[in-house]
Amino acid sequence: MRPPCLVDSSRDLSDCITAILAESGVEEHTGIHKVWDLNVGDEQDLGTSASANTGAGSGRPVLSAIADIDASLIRDKGEILDRARCALGSASEEDFLRAWHAHTALTDPAGRVVQHLRAAAGAEQCTHAWVKMFHFLNAFQELVSVRDREDEDGVVRAGKPEDDAGRELCSLHLCEAPGSFVAALNHFLRTKRPALEWRWLASTLIGDAGPGDDEAGAAKLQRDPIAQRLATGRQRRSTSSLIRSTLDSWYFGADGSGDLLRRGNVAALRARARAALGRAGLVTADGSVDCSRDPAHQERDVAPLLRAEAVCALGVLARGGALVLKLFTFAAPPTLATLRLLSERFARVVLAKPPTSRQGNSEVYAVCCGFRGLAGEGASEADEEAAWELLLSRLDPPGGQEGGGSGEAEESWSATAWLANVERGARLFARMQTEAMRANCALWERALAVQPGRGAQANAGDRAPCYAGRDAHRSPHPS
Ligand SMILES: C[S@@+](CC[C@H](N)C(=O)[O-])C[C@H]1O[C@@H](n2cnc3c(N)ncnc32)[C@H](O)[C@@H]1O
């Protein structure tokens, strides 16, 4: 079912977004100016020369060079936050974090895009996620991979709008509450591909499995405000109206929890998606786990969910299809194994950070286009099935947090040109993130220094920097 409540669906918002971003100093139309292409193509065994290529020092394995990049990113972030804490003076950690968060939100050049789209253009369920998805759809044509309507399991390909009659896009959206990716895709299709038929299914964490659920399940829910709201039925209109009005297009797994960390739910979701959509042209997976209490372990904590999302997507996609998958840092073997799997199974994988993703955080998306199937060119359906079952069987058991369910032997990719390329990407994203945080901290210190009449005795609410007018958004590297 299409989300029915889209406001002003005839208006193409691309120009509107471009104008607001340009006003805020972001000039590119698509805004996907931070991209790293993972598929370098040459897969020769590099041995130790990969390290030499990347300047990591002769003989040093690339994996440990990547781990070093991550360690120094975590160290830099810690130092910058300490500086910001110091500048604010005596404030509780909670007050400091609240004020810092407000500061980074205010200096975010893309913050105004969301406000504007909501207020002036009435975009439905418009959030940062909405604009991110809209950017991706504008930047990567292959995301709308279509097929003839009669051809349920056929190959999909990026088609032209003028050929859309009689064609359809089938999409699956994982970890999707409150549903802004769906709303953005809805808007995009209505305005740019009106002749295309669209069928979709979405899933998300919605509760624990009820009696017999493990402690980990309850804890998971406690840390996830969106899922909690859905579970307790205390939905705020703004966060769940889309889900309520399109409930037929949502599925919450075999146990009704929507928890993708349960293997049974991954299998059931895949079966439901295949029954409802056939093979899909597009899968999005935007899962995240609240790591605010332990930010240094964000990658470790997210790795099993990332893997589960990837495995689910690979079991649902049609050949030629595309996947948009959120990740954070990519320094540890479980994350790298998932990226490697994607690089092998898609013709093109790029890591992309759109401007509406806070520049000072580690969030980045793997945009994967041209799915090649799991079992190779010309493989039978039975081979595809067997390959998928193997991936599924290697997912971590419930509650398992350590391995990320990678399955693949590290030795097969740890000395390849591919990994050396990943290292360069990791270096680039880490540098951009640190620069953004430094610039933000400098702005914070400046703003605090110039506030008259604010003494050390003032509380954090009083001392938090305040800005006048729109120049606040002109920070060159906000985070
Ligand atoms: C950033 S939000 C997704 C936003 C969404 N794409 C949108 O556009 O509105 C991350 C989502 O991942 C979900 N999530 C976290 N852990 C999950 C799990 N184990 N299984 C399924 N969903 C999960 C959260 O409940 C949350 O809804």
Question: Can you describe what's shown?
Answer:
The chain has 479 residues and is α/β, with parallel strands linked by helices. The chain is built from 16 helices and 9 strands. Strands 1, 2, 3, 4, 5, 6, 7, 8 and 9 form a 9-stranded mixed β-sheet that branches. It starts with 13 loop residues before the first helix and ends in a 16-residue tail after the last helix.
Q: Under the CATH scheme, which architecture of the domain at 14-30 and 108-414 would be assigned?
A: 3-Layer(aba) Sandwich
Kindly provide the radius of gyration, computed on alpha-carbon positions and rounded to a whole number of angstroms. 22 Å
- What's the rounded overall pLDDT mean? 80
CATH class of the domain at 14-30 and 108-414: Alpha Beta
Order of helices and strands: HEHHHHHEEEHEHHHHEHEHEEHHH
> Helicity range of the residues?
40-55%
Percent in strands: 5-15%
| Euclidean distance between termini CA atoms | 37 Å
Outline the secondary-structure elements.
Elements: H1 14-23, E1 34-37, H2 49-54, H3 62-88, H4 93-107, H5 111-119, H6 128-139, E2 145-148, E3 157-158, E4 167-174, H7 180-192, E5 197-202, H8 215-222, H9 225-232, H10 237-245, H11 263-277, E6 280-285, H12 298-316, E7 317-327, H13 333-345, E8 346-353, E9 364-371, H14 381-393, H15 417-450, H16 460-463
Parallel strand pairs: 4-5, 4-6, 6-7
Antiparallel strand pairs: 1-8, 2-3, 2-4, 7-9, 8-9
The structure holds S-adenosylmethionine.
